[in-house]
Amino acid sequence: MPKVLIVDDTAFMRKLMKNILFGAGFDVAGEAENGKMAVEMYQQIKPDIVTMDVVMPEMTGIDALKNIKSIDGNAKVVMCTAIGQEKIVKTAIKLGAKGYIIKPFQAPKVIEEIKKVLAM
Amino acid sequence: MTEKIHLRTPAKLYDGKWMDAELVLGDETLAIGNKRIPVKEVEDIDNVEIENVSAIKIKKDGEIIIKPPEKLHAQVFRFLSFNLKADRFAVYFLARATSGGVVSAGVQWEKGYFSVTEEGLWFLSPKKQERIPLENMGSVEKDVRNVGGQQRMVLVLSHVEKGSVLTSLIMCPETTLEMVNNYLQRLIKSHKPEIELTEEEKEILTLIYSGLDSVSIENFIGVSTEDLNAYYDRIVEAGLANVVKIRKEIELTPSGISMVDKVK
Prior knowledge:
The complex is a heterodimer. Chain A is an alpha/beta fold. Chain A has helices spanning 11-23, 35-45, 61-71, 86-94, 107-117, and strands at 3-7, 27-32, 49-53, 77-82, 99-103.
């Protein structure tokens, strides 16, 4: 069962993502509410995949992505961006993000994207 | 002076049932059966399916449904869409540039018109006649995009179709762009439901959008079925959702109970 780390500054969005992924059989191994926490938790739990919000306090998702990729070049990070953040998506892909999910989420699309990145 | 006739063909008219009628499409008038519609007064049109038949719905003092022969359908639709009673702007457009955040394959910038009717927005070119119902419009904002290697100011229209968010782009001289932007902002605002949602109601909308069923939503936010139904009523009344299924709660009759008793 693939381990997932969910990163989002909103508790509601974390809970929703957790609900969707848990329902699809993923192991939600951890939740972080900002980029700094995400980098620390990544090293501890070594997840198979990370869902990373972009706009967060302390450390943005883009900076957290950079940090995680410097720790583990093979890290699989899927960015969660709001509609109209196409520029951020491009930056994230250049920095090594493996996919992206548009907020608000639709469960089938989230699962499809995560499975695609994990090549399931 | 006699009106120029573009098309005269047998067609069908729907009035509770399909009836044979002659369709005559002139420069100024569309006539079908005993109905005559001044072309410039057609308020909007749409492709519809009635009793498994693809047809054109024409809005002018109510609705008229016509079915031209298959091979002439596109021609009639194109003629009417270019002649709608609408505000029309000459633009370059990229309709359905992205769908669900993914860049659509094969779409290209086209030179044509952006047309605004009472009920919809239209992207019109000789090849394309795309309609966005006003109720499907999300937002309009200005943004800078790379168009043909140059950074250009464009209008980004977000709209919804079959549950997916699509974006379309409009490019035109900056003064026109500003005018179209202001016009659309006012239009969208006037069509937005006049309701101020609470945080809980916004969360419920998000959960419905994400695909959670009612029982999951109750557990997620910790409300009873009655409370959730009250939220649903308000959301439906505000025109933000439609009822698709009514839940049933039943209790067993004595016969039902005796059946359970037999289950080993």
